[in-house]
Request: fold
Amino acid sequence: MAAEASHSLADTANDLLLLVAQRRSTRGPDDRHPLGYGREAYFWALIAALGVFVAGAVFSLREGIAELVHPSVTSSFAVAYVVLAVSTIFDLVSFRRSVGQMTGQARRFNRDLLEESRVTSDPTLRAVFVEDAVSVSGDLIAFAGLALSQITGSSIAQGVAAVLIGLMLIRIGLRLVRRSHDFLVGAWLLTPATHKRDADGFTQPLRPTDEQKARAFLLAYPGVTGIRELLVTFVGPGQVWVVARLDIADDLRGDQVKSLVRGIESGMKHASENVYRVDVVAIGGAQASP
Reply:
């Protein structure tokens, strides 16, 4: 019960930090931050995962180990069951809502629920979804620990349950830390021959079909003869910055090159609501002239 109480407090503090993340990341660009403040969402999500989850996990582990070393006597199983039942109901209601939001987003990108929870660029949605799943799992573990303790007359089962809750919080916390870290510092160089996926299923910002569409759009644009590099990185939840180094026809004049670059940048932004900014580096054309 102490482990689950610390878990609930950690969730509450985590949600407050995620609210800060959501509010601060929506601010628009200014002179100091020309790309906006979207990455603040990942910073605050990182703080929440590292500080709050780990704090809850350490407390749970301490309580569990203390119970295993110095077993205590449960004063009222009935009260514990009632508290856990109420907690489980609220957690299930919240979990159902987060599942609905995650499912809706997954359908937009033609992914399944679990894949979307891994690769989504929205750290608040991921954290809430994971929190709710872990909360329900923690409630079930606590129920099992109490039931076994009542049946056997030993509180060792409760100590084991508290340790399991702590280990689960550490595992999830570190995973959320890694995800926020990936979006904070990660940039993906997309080349025609590769589309890498790591061991946990974390994919590049563009799906293969989106990458193909982007390449088809660029290669079909009048004056473009080839793609040297296509670099995509996240600047916030659902917002990508695209940098393209393109070979263009050598016979284009300077004004035609400028028109080509403006047309590509405008066209890509209108083609996808997720494209926040596009920068095109044209190689050839007027640049080939002395």
